[in-house]
Amino acid sequence: MPRGSKDKYTDKQKRKAEHIEESYEERGVSRDEAEARAWATVNKQSGGGERSGGSGQKKSPGAKAESRRSSARRAVATRHGVPRPGQRLEAMNKQELLERARRQNIRGRSSMRKQELIEALRKA
């Protein structure tokens, strides 16, 4: 069962938790477990009960937009296998090294061992 008072939650958060709880109960989850899961979901989605005084971090719209762009750039780089700055070749696995060698069009890469790939990438 969830702990603490729910007084600091908004009406919307309380309705949402109630709806989630009912949904879990319909699926056969016990009442206590359903209530605990519902409040955990609300907390995860909204960061807990609304508190007065603006205790949360506030960002300007421009700063939020920049954070989104930065996050999107990192996500794209990750999907395309671009190594993080400072990532050493030795820390990469052979598949990552092969992909990097392919992007740099290193000939004979498919028959190279890991150490040979590292040396070829350093020369390229």
UniProtKB/TrEMBL annotation:
Q: Where is the composition biased (Basic residues)?
A: 103-112
Basic and acidic residues bias: where? 1-36, 91-102, 113-124
What is the protein name stated in its UniProt record? Answer: Rho termination factor, N-terminal domain
Could you tell me which Pfam families the record lists for this protein? Rho_N
- Rho termination factor-like N-terminal domain residues: 89-124
Q: Where is the composition biased (Gly residues)?
A: 46-56
The UniProt entry's GO biological process terms, in alphabetical order, are: DNA-templated transcription termination
- Supply the source organism for this entry: Pseudomonas delhiensis
Q: Which InterPro entries match?
A: Rho-like_N, Rho_N_sf
The UniProt annotation puts the region (Disordered) at 1-124
